[in-house]
Amino acid sequence: MGRGHNRRNNERNNRHSSGKRMKWQGEHSRSAHDDSVKYKNISVYWHVGWKLENTSTNGEQLKKYIIRTMTNWDGNGSFEEFKKRREIVKAMENVEKKTVKLTSRLAVGMGYSHAIDIPGISLMRNYGIPYIPGSEVKGILADAFRLKYGDKRWGDYLLIFGDVGRMEEIDENFRIRGTVVFFDAIVLPIEEKNEKKQFFDADVMTPHYRKYYSGEHRMPLDVENPVPIPFITVRDGTSIEFLWMVIADRLKERIAIIEKEGHEVVLKNPESINKEIEALIEFVSKDLGWGAKRRVGYGRGEPV
Predict the structure, then answer these.
(1) Contact, 66 vs 73, CB < 8 A?
(2) DSSP for 146-195?
(3) Where residue 164 falls among pLDDT bands split at 50, 70, 90?
(4) Phi, psi of 254 (to 5 degrees)
(5) Which helix (DSSP H) or strand (DSSP E) does residue 239 occupy?
(6) Which terminus has fewer CB within 10 Å in the chain: N or C?
(7) Does residue 134 have a pLDDT over 70?
(8) Reported pTM
(9) Dihedral angle at the C-alpha atoms of 274, 275, 281, 282, nearest 10 degrees?
(10) Which pairing describes strands 239-246 and 95-102: parallel, antiparallel, or unpaired?
(11) How far apart are CA 254 and CA 266, in angstroms?
């Protein structure tokens, strides 16, 4: 084998400053970690697949380190760089914006796995900014529309969202795309005068009935030791910026198809569709919440 291969093996086997050998997982390289330290891109800190080997104590220390690093992260210039690209999207024709200020913490992406068993969070890979994927925004608003109108406004539902997996309820053979594009909703940090930007906050959940949840116990009994689980949230006081775009060129064609199927369409122009989407965002923000843990009050906000 060549020198390059041996050198890479030696670098991979270098010991961490704590004296413990590093165990690398996945396809991420040591250079990815080094770059994350150099440029302080919190997304790489979060996503890179490595952990300390053999000691649970060091694993716990690493959890605390990652959480502390994230809660102290101020964007480090990457947020400003992202804003430049975001402005290009906002300048596109027919793109509309709605901003919501969070009145409670936001937990989004908790189902994502992590190398050291911290519940996940949705971060933009290149910028480290927390966000709600556009597909999730669309799905939540579609559910909110159904909750608000029931079965009374199928035509408008189809016009905005398309079938979105709901067509078995009215006609399983009918398929149509919606006329609205939903962009990723990004988190805008708290920016107070003479203070650093703030995105994240540490949180903890403490399951009391793990064996009941896992099926080992038939009933939730108070005989287990609760195990606190730390996780990262988007802190309250930040804002979520929603962007969407009505594809006006599709409207007339889509309305004709939907009405031909026997569904009445009330929203027949971009202005009325935009007002409906704004109302749905406000409805979700005030009454339903965004992201995970909504039943316990997470993800609430007030339109700005």
Answers:
(1) no
(2) HHHHTTS-HHHHHHHHB-TT-GGGT-TT---B-SEEEPPEEEEPB--TTS
(3) low
(4) -65, -40
(5) strand 239-246
(6) N
(7) yes
(8) 0.76
(9) 160
(10) antiparallel
(11) 13
